[in-house]
Amino acid sequence: MEWRTVVNPHSERINVKRSEFYATVFPVKNEKDFRKKLKEISKRDATHNCWAYRIFSTEGILEHCSDDGEPSGTAGRPILGVLRKYNLVNASIVVTRYFGGVKLGVRGLIEAYSTAAKLAVKGAKTRALTLMKEFEVEVTYPELSNVFRIIETRGLELVEMTYTETGARFLLHGAEVPEELEPKTVRDVLI
After folding, report:
1. What distance in Å separates the CA atoms of residue 164 and residue 189, rounded to the nearest whole number?
2. Residues paired with residue 91 on neighbouring β-strands, in sequence order
3. Domain residues of the chain, as ranges?
4. Which of 48, 61, 103, 108 has the fewest beta carbons under 10 Å from its own?
5. In 31-189, which residue ranges form alpha helices assigned H by DSSP?
6. Across residues 42-65, what is the average pLDDT?
7. CATH code matching the domain that covers 3-128, chosen among 3.40.190.10, 3.30.230.30, 3.30.420.40, 2.40.50.90
8. pLDDT tens digits, residue range 157-167?
9. Do domains 3-128 and 130-190 have the same CATH topology?
10. What is the rounded distance in angstroms from the CA atom of residue 31 to the CA atom of residue 150?
11. pTM of the model
């Protein structure tokens, strides 16, 4: 399965029977990042700020959604369905509704929220994500040149390097962990 994420926030607006729906799709790193951005995007004067997100973690993909006062299952789940349909992870959509005086009914709400979310995703720039191993290696000074050779020949990405009293600590990304290296930690990340 190919996962994707959005590069930058993107918003779209639709009008359904005088109700305004503003959908914004945006990238998120984790749940804390989502909560912060939700506060920035949500409109206090709106009738509803419904949302959904999908975030990659080592335990799997975390998914949550909220109807924010709309009838159960009419807003959050359709928005989450759009994220799933487009295989988006580390992404969220917030759809803000300003009630226009005409009730839309269950089917109408589902259609309005999913349409607004789809338009935002279709208008957003997305990119593919790759599942990689992130690992930390600590080596002594005499081993440094060997580690740099492994990084270069194996096509590893050097994320961070810090010198220690006895050598250096490397944070690396790669498709696999080379046998020659003895990592302190290993975890899956999407890049």
Report:
1. 25
2. 27, 54
3. 3-128, 130-190
4. 103
5. 31-41, 76-85, 105-123, 144-153
6. 93
7. 3.30.230.30
8. 999 999 999 99
9. no
10. 35
11. 0.84
3-state secondary structure 37-78: HHHHHCCCCCCEEEEEEEEEECCEEEEEEECCCCCCCCCHHH
Q: Is the pLDDT of residue 171 over 90?
A: yes
Q: Would you say residue 1 has pLDDT above 80?
A: no
Give the list of residues 6+ apart from residue 112 with CB closer than 8 angstroms, or none. 14, 16, 19, 21, 97, 104
Q: What per-residue string of b and e applies to 27-43 under the rule 16 or more CB within 10 Å gives b?
A: bbeeeebbeebbeebbe
Over range 102-127, report the average pLDDT.
Answer: 97
Greatest Cα pair distance in the chain: 74
Q: Is the pLDDT of residue 77 over 70?
A: yes
Predicted confidence (pLDDT) per residue in 55-68, tens digit: 998 788 999 999 99
